[in-house]
Each structure stands twice: as structure tokens, then as C-alpha cells.
């Protein structure tokens, strides 16, 4: 089915070295795209790019820095001469190294302002800068697909009960920063779709559900019980959605939020 082919198209993926970022890169490469692997660490990006086929490029980038993003675009154009796909995947979630303080620090009343700002800077400002610089080139080119990765927590509020142990103790609170930032992703998608639609640039959101990644057994069980399919996602579960949004298979789709969550938000 040629409408899903990405043969010879050029795709920039931010946050390429993360759990889902690597799968996004593999999916695009398998569909025929030349993938530009981008994350903070250039050598690691180059190493991962070398595992992809067809030809891929590894380049370090700080998505919160305008000059860094501009340099990424220049590297891409020097190598391939064009950009067809931008996948804004780079994101931060709150992390507390010390489990003894995780409960208190993750409470809304005590959530650190510095961490709030850091998450917003990457999740929202980083997406803004990449879209502004790379998307503008697409608009001049007259064609392109931008995919902004959000989350089910950009659609519905976090369920704090899934973070409770079988003994009823709260192990962690989902903070406001990540859900608010992902809600902004969805809103920004609609703005860009309206702004650039007449210039041939499609902009859509992919909202994935939670991915199983060696979490505590009680959390996996709690999460799975809230999905209609009875499980958390595997990293590979989003490959088809990424290729669909990047390809001509979704040529009449823009401003949309594609939710792939095992039924989490259906009820």
C-alpha cells in the first residue's frame, strides 16, 4: 500500500533516544524515510542512527535553544536538501531520585517551581521552537507533516489512585506540570494546523497511553485495569500510528488528536 510509504522522505525526530523515540525512528526508517536522529547527546545519536536503514543522520540538539534548532535544520538540509516530517517527541516528566521525598515533592502544594519551569521549557517551548524553525521551512517548501506527541494526560486528568500500593499508601502523585504541558501540545497543534493549512503543512497530535517499562508490579496492574484492552502499551504499539500520521495515508487529516491508549479515555 503505497500511501503508507515514506520512501526517500526526510524525518526529524526529537527525543530520539528515549523509549518511544527509538521506536518512532525505527518505524519511520522501516517505512523508507531518511531519519534524522536528534537528542542532547550527538555521539549517542550517531551510534543509534547507524543502526537504521536507509541512510540516517545523527545530530545533537537542545530543543530549548533557538540556535541549536537552527543548526539542526542546516545540518539536515546539507545532508538531504529537504525536510518532510517533524516529529516533536522530546519531553520531560517529573523524576524524584529519592523515593523518601517523592510523595511530598510530587504533591501540588509542594511541587518545585524550578521543575515546573524545566518541564514547560522542554515540552512546550521546545516544541514551539522546532515547529517555528523547521515548520517554517516546510511552509516555504509547500508541504510537510508535523506530529506533536502529547499524552492521554493532555486529554483527561491523572488518576492518582493508580499510584497507590496494595496497602493503600500513595507512592507518588502525578504532578500538574506534565498534564498541563501535554494539554498545551494539543492546543498548539490546532493553532498550527489552522495557521499553515493553506501552505500544505499538516499538523496532528499523537496521544499515547502509558508504556510498560519495568514499573512496580502494582502500578502495572492498576494501570492495566483502567484500559479496555487490559494492559499497558508496548513501545512498538505506536509504530503504525506514527507512520500513518507521517504518510499520505493521512493526507486529509490535520488539527486532529489521534489517541492510542488501549481504551483508557473511552470510558
Report on this structure.
The protein is an alpha/beta fold. It has one domain: NAD(P)-binding Rossmann-like Domain (Rossmann fold). It has 8 helices and 7 strands. Helix 1 crosses helix 8, helix 3 runs parallel beside helix 5 and helix 5 packs parallel to helix 6. The longest helix has 29 residues. The model has no long low-confidence stretch (mean pLDDT 96).
Order of helices and strands: EHEHEHEHHEHEHHE
Side by side, the strands of the main sheet go: 3-2-1-4-5-6-7
Describe the largest sheet: 7 strands, parallel
Question: Structural class given helices, strands, pairing?
Answer: alpha/beta
Rg computed from alpha carbons, rounded to a whole number of angstroms: 18 Å
Helix content: 40-55%
Strand content: 5-15%
Ends: how far apart?
Answer: 33 Å
Shape category: globular
CATH architecture: 3-Layer(aba) Sandwich
Uncertain runs are none
Q: What's the structural domain tally?
A: 1
Count, helices: 8
